Structure formats: structure tokens, C-alpha cells
Amino acid sequence: MSIVESVLRYGPSPWHRIDLYNPRGTSADSRIVLFHGGFWRHDRIARDLEPLAIALVRRHRAVAVVEYRPVWDGGSWPGAAEDGALALEALSAQDPAWNEAVLAGHSAGAHLAMAAVTGRAAGRELVLLAPVVHLEHAASLGVGVGAVGHFTGAHLAAGGTLAEATPRPDRADVAGLSVVRAGSDQTVPDALTDVQLGGWRADGLAPEEHVVPEARHMHLVNPERPGCSVTLELLTASAGARA
């Protein structure tokens, strides 16, 4: 299957870019929006998810990969989170069908995906891959080697809290929540995932957990790794259910 690539700009920064991937000559069965990780400082960028996007297009999905400002260029809290919400608005303005897209976030990208839907009562479907969302607990565990402090430093200096920078959507915001845990994740400890799952259950979100044995952190978004098969199957099925 051939693939059409294009770019949608959603703001003044060079980082305000959405990479779009569509099957050529045929309509997509459904749509998926991806948020990359990299601990808000762009250890990873949107182009790193291109192989995953292409693998999804080959399954007849249209895919949007959101780029956003890094912490060192305007993305410190709430900058990158605001970018995520603006990106969804830009997609909707281009085509209202994007309102039905499944949102997937990897690592810190899960934080941005969740922040983008919080308080909007849009009933979005979320797939979180090795998520880093609960900032206070992530910081206490040293996840990302100081990344949470870098991301929220200005906010904390102004008297804010990590709780304020941790999105807490309710059932009106999230129609379904799937969480994928890498069984040998060297970046996101099980303790963080356990706390997050417990919090979401307490908030009534009823997350479905999927564990990929022996997978490492980046395997969940690398189609060349066996661990990514769970991601592909889950995103394809979730997007199909929304079509």
C-alpha cells in the first residue's frame, strides 16, 4: 500500500507541526493520533514514530503524529500540554472525523494525550503505552533523571504543584482507557504504572491493562520488535471500534 504524507501546522513555532499519514487512493477505516515521548525535552521526536504510523496506515488507518514544543523551547508546563489540545483542535478544523480518533501516547506522550482530553467531555478513547502521567510519583522515583523537575520547574517556582500538572480526566472525558506495560521496561518502573492504574480505577476510568512480557520501553512503538504487535493490534481494534 502506498502512503500519502503531509504536514499540518497548528501554531507559530516550528514545533507546531502534525505529521499526517494516509493510505493513497482509498479512504481510511478510522483514525489514530499519536503523541511521542522523550520526557518533554525531546529525547524523542515525532519522526521517531513514523515507522509505527506507516504500520498503522498499512492496516487502513489514517494517522496523525503530533509534534510539540520541548521544555527548552516553550514547552514547559503547561506549554506542551496546551500544544496537544491545540493540535486536536487543528485536526478537527481540518476534518471533523478526527474527533472520533483514538489518542495514543507513549511514555511522557501519554501525559500530553491525557491532558489534551481532560475537562473537554468529549468521550475520547485513550491508549497509553508505558505511561508517565502521575508527576509527583514519577519525580519521587527519579523517572527520566530529573525530567519532571525540568518540565514543571517554572510552574513550581511560581507556587504551583505537581498535582496541578497531572491531568485527571473523568468518565465524561474518557470513553475507554487501555494501558500497555512493557514487561522489561528499563525506563518506567512497575511501581509508577501500579500507582497510575490504581488512581485511574479510583477515578472510575476502568483501565484495561495489557502486559507485554520481555518488552523494553521503546519496543512498544517499534514495529520491528515483537512487543509492538500488541500496540498495533490494540490500536487497530480500538480505532476500528470508533469508526
Automatic annotation (TrEMBL):
<keyword id="KW-0378">Hydrolase</keyword>
<dbReference type="GO" id="GO:0016787">
    <property type="term" value="F:hydrolase activity"/>
</dbReference>
<dbReference type="InterPro" id="IPR029058">
    <property type="entry name" value="AB_hydrolase_fold"/>
</dbReference>
<dbReference type="InterPro" id="IPR049492">
    <property type="entry name" value="BD-FAE-like_dom"/>
</dbReference>
<dbReference type="InterPro" id="IPR050300">
    <property type="entry name" value="GDXG_lipolytic_enzyme"/>
</dbReference>
<dbReference type="Pfam" id="PF20434">
    <property type="entry name" value="BD-FAE"/>
</dbReference>
<feature type="domain" description="BD-FAE-like">
    <location>
        <begin position="18"/>
        <end position="118"/>
    </location>
</feature>
<protein>
    <submittedName>
        <fullName>Alpha/beta hydrolase</fullName>
    </submittedName>
</protein>
